[in-house]
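User: Fold both of these, please.

Assistant: Here is the first one.
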Amino acid sequence: MDCRLGCGACCIAPSITTPIPGMPDGKPAGVRCIQLNEQNLCKLFGKAERPAVCGLFAATDDVCGSNDSEALWLISTLEAATN
């Protein structure tokens, strides 16, 4: 599956425990990443300072669903189940 540009669910729903430029302590689940622009695109995409965990994320049907709202719900549910 290809990532849906402008979805942003993977930059909002999960917690990230490693530093992000502008968020030195990472980010809690459900908090919008400071590096997500107004179009829900990553400002760090393709840059060395992008956290490794972000680069490892792969869009799949079971995680991203069929639309942006479903992706946010699915990733939030997975995040809650792993805490």
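And the second sequence with its predicted structure:
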Amino acid sequence: MFVPQGLAQFIKVNVTLENGEPVFIYTDANGQQCPGDVTITQAGTVTYLLNDQTGKGLKFVGVGFVTPFDEIVDAVTISSDGMLVQLVDLDRTPGNTKFQFVLSNTTNTLLVLSPDPEITNRPQN
């Protein structure tokens, strides 16, 4: 999925339970299933919207990066209700970075990790 300049890109993070385990399915703005990965060609923001279908009160509490200093993603913000995560990407550094969403739940104090979507920067300059 490519993020055009000046337009907000939304990806819905649908979480269900299968045999008691969380299953993450990403869908684009048109409701089509996608891998959750995004390719950035110009500065922009990618917004992930949580659609918790588990009944466990999931909320975003963080985003974890294996390589947090690679300068691919420039900033992360989480809405106060834990339903939105925004990744700010100024598209200055070419390359890829993988991350995982960190979610809390109302059932216990354990945290849930998502599969790792990926941001790819391909600056036009």
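The radius of gyration is 14 Å.
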